[in-house]
Write a structure and sequence with these properties.
- By secondary structure, the protein is an alpha/beta fold.
- The chain folds into two domains: about 1-105 and about 270-358, Isopropylmalate Dehydrogenase (3-Layer(aba) Sandwich); about 110-260, Isopropylmalate Dehydrogenase (3-Layer(aba) Sandwich).
- The protein has helices spanning about 15-30, 45-50, 60-65, 90-100, 125, 165-180, 195-210, 225-230, 245-255, 295-310, 315-330, 345-355, and strands at about 5-10, 35-40, 70-75, 105-110, 130-135, 150, 155-160, 185-190, 215-220, 240, 265-270, 275-280.
- Helix 1 packs parallel to helix 12, helix 6 crosses helix 7 (about 195-210) and helix 11 packs across helix 12.
- The chain is globular and about 60 Å long.
- It binds 3-isopropylmalic acid and magnesium ion (MG).
- 3-isopropylmalic acid binds near residues 90, 93, 94 and 248.
- Magnesium ion (MG) binds next to helix 9.
């Protein structure tokens, strides 16, 4: 069996703890002869700033290009807050997304039955939620020029630019429409076309592209309304497609629907389906190194990797079912425990999922 080459980028904070559990699960599959891996580890984020002076060293990008897939933890922490912008851990993440042209970010928001009561919303609103947020990841205001803090008329002015080319909008919309075909056939495109020209273009291009997908129903929402609908009736959504910034915000709302951001995986794909997989949660420096972090988002990210980059949907489903079983057995890390429930460590949660894998 030809091994899949996986680059692990544990990063900062809880990143190393949760990626260790994701790796353990992949190794469990490999030990059973289901698949083979060759793991390599690299530096990103604050860890890379400390060791190499920058958040994305060349060698990491080279290794990422060589790998079949990248599995990342998280970046950032207060230690690097005061650093110059080029040495901010987050720059490393943005640079690898851009360097590998990972323009399509998939953030599935699914609520495990066992956790419907962990959400801050009513369980009847949450049970059965299954939304896929498709976020454009290499364009928009995150990367647009001009940007910077400039001096103007004796005071400073901060500038960022929301900018989308038709081709960038078209390709992410195609991703969303294709993915909707494998689901319930509905795409909501989210924009702010009542105010922003970039959004007017977004909406026009989305409509044009959708003509090639007569079997998919495309509708449009302004982002403020979309945010409201997402907490009002999350079950009404199938696929949402949106820009980099709106997707960032809406996916945190999505995370809270499921009860904890510790549960949400993501895939960032380029045009050939190669990708970087990472939990949606951040580095959580306040709980780092204490065995408190929830490894499920990292484990579910590994499942997405099996599905989207390694062609093993069969194994992805088994991992996802193992996570559901562990939750159904009442195994809870602190973030998803109800008062009075027993709380397990990061490692113990990883073990519980590995044990439930069959
Ligand atoms: C995310 C994060 C990142 C983003 C940060 C860490 C740069 O919030 O992946 O959602 O804004 O994209
Ligand atoms: Mg975010």
């Amino acid at each position: 069996m030809k091994p899949h080459r996986i680059l692990l980028l544990p990063g900062d904070g809880i990143g190393p703890e949760v990626t260790t559990q994701a790796r353990r699960l992949l190794e469990t599959l490999a030990a059973r002869g289901e698949i083979a891996f060759e793991f390599e580890e690299g530096l990103i984020g604050g860890a890379a700033v400390d060791a190499r002076g920058k958040p994305l060293p060349e060698e990491t990008l080279v290794a990422a290009r060589r790998a079949d897939a990248v599995l990342m933890g998280a970046v950032g922490g207060p230690k690097w807050d005061g650093a110059p912008r080029a040495a901010h851990p987050e720059r490393g993440l943005l640079a690898i997304r851009s360097g590998l042209e990972l323009y399509a970010n998939l953030r599935p928001v699914r609520c495990a039955d066992a956790l419907a009561d962990a959400s801050s919303l009513k369980p009847e609103l949450i049970r059965g939620v299954d939304v896929l947020i498709v976020r454009e990841l290499t364009g928009g205001i995150y990367f647009g020029e001009p940007r910077g803090i400039f001096e103007e008329d004796g005071e400073r002015v901060g500038i960022n630019t929301e900018r989308y080319r038709e081709s960038e909008i078209a390709r992410i919309c195609r991703n969303a429409l294709e993915l909707a075909r494998l689901r319930r056939g509905q795409v909501v495109s989210v924009d702010k076309a009542n105010v922003l020209e970039s959004s007017q273009l977004w909406r026009e291009v989305a409509k044009t592209v959708a003509r090639d997908y007569p079997d998919v129903r495309l509708t449009h929402l302004y982002v403020d309304n979309a945010a409201m609908q997402l907490v009002r009736s999350p079950k009404s959504f199938d696929v949402m497609v949106t820009s980099n910034l709106f997707g960032d915000i809406l996916s945190d709302i999505g995370a809270q629907l499921t009860g904890s951001i510790g549960l949400l995986p993501s895939a960032s794909l380029n045009a050939d389906g190669r990708g970087l997989y990472e939990p949606v949660h951040g580095s959580a420096p306040d709980i780092a190194g204490r065995g408190l972090a929830n490894p499920l988002a990292a484990i579910l990210s590994a499942a997405m990797m099996l599905r989207h980059s390694l062609g093993r949907s069969d194994l992805a489903e088994r991992v996802e079912r193992a996570v559901e079983r562990a939750l159904a057995r009442g195994i809870r890390t602190a973030d998803i425990a109800r008062p009075g429930q027993d709380v397990v460590s990061t490692v113990r949660m990883g073990q519980a999922v590995a044990e439930a894998l069959y």
